[in-house]
Specification:
glycosyltransferase activity, Spore Coat Polysaccharide Biosynthesis Protein SpsA, Chain A, alpha/beta
Length: about 240
């Protein structure tokens, strides 16, 4: 049996790969460790939350999501929370969503909805929708999610709102995909996990750079003080991380 022999160049290349892999491992461990410490601190009640449940506005952008609205929107409208409104910005009037929202409005008076005019062109329609929702909101705290998402429990808004302390401007949440037993889904879940470790880890290091539009909140005053998305309204991306 012949021994495998590596050249100096091959050994150098493998050594560099090993060092880079080790750096990546340390990098992600450091970020995850911040998240782990935060969870431990919460369990030990060392994190100070506010006992006050401020009124808030949930803003949802939807486009061609009539069936998903029918399925998931009641889970948001029926949250165990004393005072909140849900504002749906509809980007399509031809898929039955307008009729659905009109019917649901009769059952849920705290539901409000509007639409994006067809004349709005050359802009990111999602950013325009979120801006319209912020302007239409009645409360200071704005909570964002999407039409194809549902909360893990009816305590979602309470868990978000406990972070609305005096010094807090933005609250970042976590979201995950519903389990499916196929490789493409597993890859997406794996990718989302590492992305979440990055943005939550950096946020806990006081260096936030993005969030997930499916589960985040910020102050209305902050949004308009920063002029919202006005500087990049023409870019399709960035509704979650350009602010």
């Amino acid at each position: 049996m012949e021994a495998i022999v590596f050249s100096v160049l091959e050994l150098t290349f493998l050594s560099i790969l090993g060092i880079l892999w080790l750096i990546q491992l340390i990098y992600y461990f450091a970020l995850y460790n911040r998240i782990h410490k935060r969870r431990v601190a919460i369990k030990k009640r060392k994190v100070r939350f506010t006992p006050e449940l401020f009124p808030l506005s949930v803003i949802i952008y939807t486009r061609d999501d009539c069936e998903k609205l029918r399925k998931f929107l009641p889970m948001i409208l029926e949250q165990d929370y004393p005072e909140f409104e849900v504002i749906v910005i509809n980007d399509s009037l031809e898929n039955g969503s307008e009729e659905l929202l009109s019917l649901m409005k009769k059952q849920y008076p705290h539901l409000h909805y509007t639409f994006i005019p067809t004349s709005a062109r050359y802009v990111c329609r999602k950013k325009l929708a979120l801006t319209l929702g912020a302007k239409a909101s009645n409360y200071e705290w704005l909570v964002f999610t999407e039409a194809d998402c549902y909360p893990a429990s009816n305590k979602w808004l309470r868990l978000m709102a406990r972070n609305f302390t005096v010094d807090t401007q933005i609250v970042l949440g976590y979201s995950n995909f519903q389990y499916k037993n196929d490789w493409s889904h597993k890859y997406k879940t794996f990718d989302l996990l590492f992305m979440s470790i990055r943005y939550l880890g950096f946020a806990l290091a006081n260096k936030p750079y993005m969030g997930i539009g499916r589960n985040m909140a910020y102050r209305k005053e902050l949004f308009f003080k920063q002029k919202g998305f006005s500087s990049h309204l023409n870019l399709n991306g960035g509704a979650d991380d350009l602010f």
